[in-house]
Amino acid sequence: MVIISSIREQAFRRLVSPTRDREVAVDEEVEWFADRDETILGTVGFGGEGEGWNYAILKRGSSKGFLVWERQEHFPTCRTARVMLLRQMTGAEAVGAERLAA
Question: Does residue 2 carry a pLDDT above 90?
């Protein structure tokens, strides 16, 4: 079972390299999430070209820390972006587990 929890911005920043901040780019971030082992992170933000809600998912890379794995934009509400983010984060974990088992 994959457990995703809300985390504080400071915890998110501690995990993500400062040089990766621009790559995450969901504009004004308002929520941050991580799995129990902190191998997958997510953030929800507002802004961008369409001025809508966005999310980004980061997965731990080999030696380069976290890399942006998926980014989606143009959600009508923060709640919609959060729900989609959490669905994708749990799906990403399941895919990773399947690959390890194979």
Answer: no
What's the mean pLDDT in 20-39? Answer: 81
Which residues contact residue 9 at a Cβ distance below 8 angstroms, ignoring those fewer than 6 apart? 29, 32
Range of the domain at 10: 4-97
Partners of 75 in beta bridges: 53
Token pair belonging to 76: 């009508």
Task: Note if the pTM is more than 0.85.
Answer: no
**CB-based contacts of 25, cutoff 8 Å, min separation 6:** 56, 71
Helices (H), the chain: 9-15, 21-24, 78-101
Domain count, the chain: 1
- State the average pLDDT over residues 30-37: 93
80 in a domain, yes or no?
A: yes
Examine residue 11 and state whether it is found in any structural domain, yes or no.
Answer: yes
Cβ-Cβ contacts under 8 Å for 90 (sequence gap 6 or more): 2, 4
Q: Name the region of 91 (left: φ>0; alpha: ψ -120 to 50; beta: rest).
A: alpha
Tell me, yes or no, whether 102 lies in a domain. Answer: no
